[in-house]
Structure formats: structure tokens, C-alpha cells
Amino acid sequence: xxxxxxxxxxxxxxxxxxxxxxxxxxxxxxxxxxxxxxxxxxxxxxxxxxxxxxxxxxxxxxxxxxxxxxxxxxxxxxxxxxxxxxxxxxxxxxxxxxxxxxxxxxxxxxxxxxxxxxxxxxxxxxxxxxxxxxxxxxxxxxxxxxxxxxxxxxxxxxxxxxxxxxxxxxxxxxxxxxxxxxxxxxxxxxxxxxxxxxxxxxxxxxxxxxxxxxxxxxxxxxxxxxxxxxxxxxxxxxxxxxxxxxxxxxxxxxxxxxxxxxxxxxxxxxxxxxxxxxxxxxxxxxxxxxxxxxxxxxxxxxxxxxxxxxxxxxxxxxxxxxxxxxxxxxxxxxxxxxxxxxxxxxxxxxxxxxxxxxxxxxxxxxxxxxxxxxxxx
Length: 377
Fold this sequence. Notes:
The two termini are 23 Å apart. The protein contains 12 helices and 14 strands. By secondary structure, it is α/β, with parallel strands linked by helices.
């Protein structure tokens, strides 16, 4: 494997470099102010993030995994319950379900968008854990909105709560509405590599349900309704003032940075159209893909990956194994429907370089390397 070509800058570092003065000033302001936990910066970020997503409430928490856990706990979902979730996702989605006390029921994905398939959810309802299902966690994987319309119809009929995992989808829309506003509640991560990334960990929950928002606010800080008195069992999961201040700086041009991702993805689409061994990302009608990752499919993925790495092009597999194939969570597969599309996808997916500060020259270099691949003819 060759050294990474200098055109391919690391996203979190480049993002900081482009905003360095504003970020350092915001950080200094927090440190000078002396209020570091749940102060004005968090309150302002929560208000701005809720408005950006188009909902009434946002609750800042320590990370995206906590966001899912606290969302479930706020809904009273826990021990003995089950949550439908794709196995083709970051393991955090499933880890959070388990931390809430519930069991995951893995659901298969659409081969084009990699998002949860409504017909597989129907199969899960007929399966051995169907009677315990209480919620569906629809993951907007790679930045593509899940089929929430198809899922909502099933959830309404079966009495399930529909939730969004928006960790990879900041800026994606479905019929003009931003993700985070499309279900009972949504969980977001602000991990540094996300479309909206902190300089460390961070997360948030969005909802239009005022009662749910209030319960989550209590749970995130020891169950307090008043200081030092726990009304319910809680945890310590608070977005800190420093990260909130930095996220507020980045939120200002989030829409613009997502548009840049979409423009670079369009360049990939134009340059790789018709490639015999590459299937490009699909975008379902009515959706705007946020392109947190630009993921292609190829039946010759491993050969293609080796070729690109030899050219100094940093490609990766997101993810090398589905969650149900990982020893820590494999036991839950027995109560899940067949996951054939998930298993086929895992063997073929490859993430190409893409972030808003990446140059057109870097995209073209990747396209040229793919077109020149000896196995491509």
C-alpha cells in the first residue's frame, strides 16, 4: 500500500484549519467565562439545532450512542422489549439499544440505498420477537434518508414507535423536510468525522414531543428535576459548553458544506457512469442524500480496493462486517428475519474519498484510477 497522496487531506484536521481563528476564539470565550457544563452555549446550540432540523426541541448529550439510549429510555423502552434496527450500521446503534436494556431485532436493507426495508420489518413482526417489538430505529445510513413513509405505515398499524438514527445524515432531506423532524424522535452524533462534527464527542436528540424532551433532560443529568434531587434514575450524559460553542460555529455553514458534498458526489457520478465494476450510490425519489460517505458497490471490491490503495487513494470499508456477524452481537440474529441483502452488501461496499474541503483534483484522481484499473476492461 502506497503512502496517501497529498491531495487527500484528513477531514477533521482540514475542517479545523479552515475555521481555526473562529474556533479558537469560541473556545477561549468559554474558558474565560468559567461556566463549563450546561450553560448558555449549550442552550443556544440546542435552540439553533432544533430550528435547523425543524423541530421544537433539541437536547444535547455526551455522544450519539447516548442519544439513542436516552431516546429509548425517555420512551420507557427497556428490559424485555425489542427494537427493530438494520444490521448494516455502525455498531453504536445496537450498543445503545442494549444499554437501554432492550434487544435488537435485525432487519434487512435495500440493496441500493442500504436503508431498512419495510418488507423485512413486516417479516420481523411475524418472527419470534415480533410480540416484543416496541420501536423501529431507522438508520439514515451514509446520509441517505430511510424509507420513513413505508416504515411509518407499518408502525402505525403495529403500534410501534418510529425513531431516526441521524448520526450520518446531518443535512439530508425527505420531501423537503430535514431528517431529525420526520419521526417521534431522532438521535444525532457530532463525532469529529460527521457532517457536523465536534472537536471530540457530542450528540443530541430532537423531537416535537415536549414531554419526551423534558424526560430526556432529566435522565441526562442524574434524573434531577431540581439540583441534587433525583426524581428518576438517570445518568451523566451532557454536551459540554466547549463543544456546543464549537458546533455553533460550524452550524452556520452546514447547509453549504452539505451542498459541496453533493456536488463532489455528482462529479463521481458523471466520471464513473457506465463503469463495468462499479455501482454508484442510489438516491431514492424525494430524497436529498447528505453524503456523509460516498459508498460504491463492486463484486470485485477487494481487488479494486487494493488497486486504489496502491495509488495512494484512501478508501475504506464501512463496514467490514454487519453487526449480526460480529461475535459480541451475533446472538440476536436467531430472532431476526433473513439478512441476505445485508450480507451481500458487506462483501461489496467501498467508501471513496469525500468531504467538503476535498478538491476537484482529488475526486478526478480517484475517478482516473478507477477507470485505469486493469480489471476494469
